[in-house]
Amino acid sequence: MADRPPFDLLRAAFVLVAIVVLAELAFTMAGAISCIWLIWQDRYRVGACETVATQARDIFGELLTAILALLLAGRKPPE
Question: What is the pTM of this model?
């Protein structure tokens, strides 16, 4: 049986965070496009989607914190 490299938990965490970032980016873009569409159709007034922008900003701030924590965890101690 061939020797397999050990499972790298840190790399798996990076992949998971990358998937979450891409999903959040897709949902944020869909929300922004739908808000622009509804404003253009005169169903929403300008500025009605402010809560969506605030929520997206908060989520991306938390994701940035998680990414920085993973980067710090991945650093090797000096020799």
Answer: 0.73
| Distance of alpha carbon 79 from alpha carbon 72, whole angstroms | 16
> Contact 28/56 with Cβ under 8 angstroms?
yes
Could you give phi then psi for residue 46, rounded to 5 degrees? -65, 130
> Into how many domains does the chain fold?
1
Q: How is 13-68 classified by DSSP, letter by letter? A: HHHHHHHHHHHHHHHHHHHHHHHHHHHHTTSS-TTTTHHHHHHHHHHHHHHHHHHH
- Does residue 36 lie within any of the structural domains? yes
**What is the extent of the structural domain holding 24?**
16-71
What is the identity of the amino acid at 61? Answer: G
Q: What is the mean pLDDT of residues 40-54?
A: 81
